[in-house]
Amino acid sequence: MNLYKYVSNAINEKLGFVANLETPRNRDFGDFSTNAAMVGAKLAHKNPRELAAEILPKIQELDFVASAEIAGPGFINIKIKNEFILQNATAPQPRTEQNPLVIDMDYGAYNVAKSLHIGHLRTSIVGDTLNRIFRFMGHKTFSWNHIGDWGKPMGLIIAWIERLHPELPYFQEGFDPQTHVDYEIDPNELNTYYPAASALAKQDADFQARAQEIKAKFQAGHPGYFALYEKFLAISLRAMNNTVQRLNILPFDYDLGERNAAQYLGQVEKILNEKHMIYESDGAMVIDTKRDTDTAPIPPYMWRDSRGADTYDSTDLAAVYCRKIKDNPDKIIYFTDLRQSLHFEQLFRTADKSGIYPYEKFEHIGYGTINGADGKPFKTRDGNAAGLDDILDMAYEAVNARIAESNKNLDAETIKTIALAAVKFNDLIHDVKSDYIFDTSAITSFEGRTGPYVLYTAVRLNSVLNRATIEPKIVDTTINADERNLLLAILDFDRTIDTACENRATDLIANYAYNLCQLINGFYHECPILRDDIDESTKQTRLYIAKLARDTLVTATNLMGLEIPSKM
Ligand code: ARG
Domain end: 80, 111, 135, which one? Predict the structure, then answer.
């Protein structure tokens, strides 16, 4: 139940106008506070405090109200009946939506032959959590791993391999794709090719030109380049799969990226040409994306570069076209670094103008940067830009060290689970748009706003529930403050997920989970459950509350893609 909505609607209905309901931080004066008297006073030209006195009995009549009092200039503070709280708190259930939306979500979007960097962490984690939230809310989502498998890096990598092994059959005239080529690429080495080739291209104009030429020929279907590409593509797809598993994110519905989109370029070009949207500029083919209302200049969208090659821009538009045909989505949502905002603004405008997909159905969720203590993008100890695996390894080491220190005995799988929770929870608790500082020690602490703290709380509750031999059940409706506050938080789950979904604010779920854990731990300390001196009815009721709390927390951790270990 969304208690907030329930109370708010009941008050509005009773009074016949819409007032604002607040949840005061300090619950001593009430669980909710309404400004109804102020709103009503304005409507009726009356004094708010006088009107509050008139309204008060009506609010007191509501069956869930234990007490109501006037405060300050005319606020009415409301306390909810204990029985009502206890009877209506339920574990969250996935929703059934009458009018589910079809949502295409573009996140992850890993690149072929490039190891994942720290930036891929946020798109994966936040994208995955939002996907889980949408599904929980009853919507139909399709997740697209829009792989970077077609552009400039492909040309650079093939050119690099050509430099290393010019004798390979792939580079010989008249290469037959049926030919078996005895050449294997070492997966670790593969990741070094792109950085090396792109560094060389910056200094060596001939190499740069060669890579561009290869890219154009590759895109035009050169059999040798294509056969070689398929070799390293397979390695990369395997690595991506490992990442998905290592991050415990849902498998993608489509691992289809730029190359898949490129098949639709002809159809899209036809549409663009019918609308006379493409024109030549400095040898390239471009599309105007300016609008009269622009206050800053917005550059044209690159349809084809001056060598006639497909671009990130053109394949992204073709991908929209493909999604429209395949899924016919009500929304397309992209998760990338904030720095790609201009690209998406251009894409949305172009898609809209061409009639392929309307501007207002697109969303771009741009996330901030993960920084080191120096405020600059996070680097590993040796000064290199941190890869995703580095981050997970560092978190593992930090958790491992803590476990050793505390003389606990946990297996490697459990430590991995805790380390992943540390990284993911920390990512989720920050507002998506803001940068944050990555501090391995802080995020792996077992106290405070951390993943390990959340897991630990869940493990503890599980252990109580597993030990119990009596049935969890409401026997006694007298509840104390700790039980009450915990139940009110459980009753706030539905509101939290409504708001998180509406505002695409995954941090609300993480913060909710943390607050819930604090209340759970308060309850755990103050309200012994299975102790011998506790009477049976209290035991059962407390066990009931513990179970509700556990189920609510598990729902939240599932939404964040965190696993709860059996022991910690
Ligand atoms: N592969 C790109 C990168 O790693 C992100 C692609 C995002 N999605 C898209 N449709 N452009 O930066």
Answer: 80
